[in-house]
Amino acid sequence: MIRYTRIPRLNYLGAGSLLPSARQLHTTKVSSDFFSWFKSKKNQDQEPTVPTKGTQELISDIEAGKTSKISNKQKLELIPENFIGEEEGELAEKARAKQIKGVPFNRWLSAKKVANEAQLDALLIESYNNAWNGSKITSATDSKLEGTFPDLVIKFNFTKSLQASSGYLIPDYQLTILNTPAQFKNYICKEILSGKQARYKESEPNAIHLSSAQFTSPNIYIVPDVKPKAQKNTYRKIIREVNILEAESARRAIEQARQS
């Protein structure tokens, strides 16, 4: 029988040195990935499991009111302290506030509102003298206040000065139909100083103010207006009750989820 012996292949390394060719083995350090940290923490924090009980023993514990508690640190309890983050509405409100904070607003209306007719007369004289360069008045009973505006530029300057100093805006419709300074004074006294404008907002659908004195028919009943202060108090009371109910509902939901 002829046996064949395998002769190892020789490699030439360097100058004239002969070494047998062999497969080299090498090792490297284990590279831990991102999730390996969680696996290691889970093994460290894992508590010993509760030993199983027999059926009869478990029934006896339940009847006696005993409950087994299994704590798992990998799960958070459903309590308000463990809820993180912000609601979408709060984030949007903060973003808008940040954008508006750096905007330079031109507040041309006076923060101090005109309160009586004497103050209005002084503002009327000041606005007239600012608008008319050549003509000046010193009294609110001057006949010049009954005259019409000579052009739109003077009317614009007068109405802008009157609105800015009085602190009240005049609707565009009134700016169009009123043609004399005296008419603007009558409008402000009738609509603003009388308190009529404070009962409603012109931009809302219920801006028309009705009273029972306007209708003589017995089959027409006008619901009395609710003062803005009473409306705000009622609104705050409703919102307060809603917040209490929502908080109670959330508390019950958390308690039920915690017990389940």
UniProtKB/TrEMBL annotation:
Keyword Ribosomal protein attached: yes
UniProt-recorded Gene Ontology molecular function terms: structural constituent of ribosome
Organism (species): Torulaspora delbrueckii (Yeast)
Subcellular location: Mitochondrion
Domain of life: Eukaryota
Family annotation (Pfam families): Ribosomal_L50 (PF10501)
Protein name, per record: Large ribosomal subunit protein mL50
Entry keywords, A to Z: Mitochondrion, Ribonucleoprotein, Ribosomal protein
Main location: mitochondrion
Family under the similarity heading: Belongs to the mitochondrion-specific ribosomal protein mL50 family.
A single Gene Ontology CC term: mitochondrial large ribosomal subunit
